[in-house]
Amino acid sequence: MPRLFRPWHRALTFLLVSACSLQTYASTVLEMSFQDVLDHAELVFEGRVSAVESRQEDDGMIHTFVRFEVLDVLKGDTPDTVLELRFLGGTVGTQRLEITDMIMPEVGESGVYFVESLHVPQVNPLVGWAQGHFLIEPQGGGERGMLTAHHEPVLAVDAADAAPVTAALNTFSKGVAKGVVVQESLSVQAASRPMTVEEFKHSVRVLVAGSQ
Fold first, then answer.
1. How much is the mean pLDDT over the chain?
2. 67 close to 48: Cβ distance less than 8 angstroms
3. pTM for this structure?
4. Most buried by CB count within 10 Å: which residue of 12, 15, 27, 171?
5. For the chain, which residues make up each domain, given as ranges?
């Protein structure tokens, strides 16, 4: 497995264990291109979060289990219409485990999710963490628009700029994959219409077809 995607590269440095049973880990995630994110995803799907539950396992580590209704599969295959993914971290009673830069899906959230593996445990099962996590939110006129995990409107997927990133560059991620064009300013003058869900899914399917 490439160095970039090993789970321990995503939670590198132990920072704190306090008397309040709080554990915090720092994370370092390398920047990927959108094509990288897509290529390393075993499954890409549109879904809705129906349940979130944190549990402390036998080894003492806390994980949060997120259950999705699978609405549309863009890459890969899932045998069920319900999918559960496990994220490291969460709160159980007075015990809390935090991973910096971890954005976990929330109950009621809809989005498009790029899952690295359905079988190999990860700190975060989404490829590139926030880079493989997109939100769907209602827009004016009844349309549904695409946002990043940080709620930045996605304006386009630039296929030319989404080509794989040279690993030697080791640029740290800011939460958006290279090639994903976002609206950084929400001023009235600068605001643009985000991609609709269908436009975004079409771009994904085109890139999937082109890489086969």
1. 85
2. no
3. 0.85
4. 27
5. 3-211
